[in-house]
Amino acid sequence: MEAYRDQYAKLFNGGRNVVVLAVSADADTALASWARDLQTPLLFGSDVGNAIGRRYGAPRGSSRNLFVIDPSGRIAKRMTPFNELAQTAYDELESAVKKTLPAN
């Protein structure tokens, strides 16, 4: 979770024109506690029963999923599961976010 916070400006365009929703099977109280303790600006969603995962194509048993939402509100990238320990996952995430940003 620290990698999300530490790479926020680079990965998420400083929070401008992009929404990234990290969804996990962790309880909402745990996610709220982590977000507060880490002082992270990311959005986390709790999917204890895997309803979101099933609805949006996450594999069964996947406990950490990440969705990049484009400006029109559509899911532009599904990272199911998201491997928060692998730098390649963050590289892929950065690329997906950049594709959703308006051209300058």
Structure notes:
By secondary structure, the chain is α+β, with helices and mostly antiparallel strands. The chain has one domain (2-99): Glutaredoxin (3-Layer(aba) Sandwich), CATH 3.40.30.10. Helix content is 38%, strand content 20%. The protein has five helices and four strands; from the N terminus they run H-H-E-H-E-H-E-E-H. Strands 2-1-3-4 form a four-stranded mixed β-sheet. A hairpin with a 5-residue loop joins strand 3 (64-69) and strand 4. The relative contact order is 0.21.
Which labels suit this protein?
38% helix, globular, 104 residues, 5 helices, Glutaredoxin, alpha+beta, four-stranded mixed beta sheet
> Helix and strand string, N-terminal first?
HHEHEHEEH
How many structural domains in the coordinates?
A: 1
Give the CATH topology: Glutaredoxin
Fourth-tier CATH superfamily name: Glutaredoxin
Terminus-to-terminus distance: 30 Å
CATH hierarchy: architecture: 3-Layer(aba) Sandwich
Helix-strand category: alpha+beta
Calculate Rg over CA atoms: 13 Å
User: How many beta-strand runs?
Assistant: 4
In round numbers, the mean pLDDT is 83
**Helicity level:** 25-40%
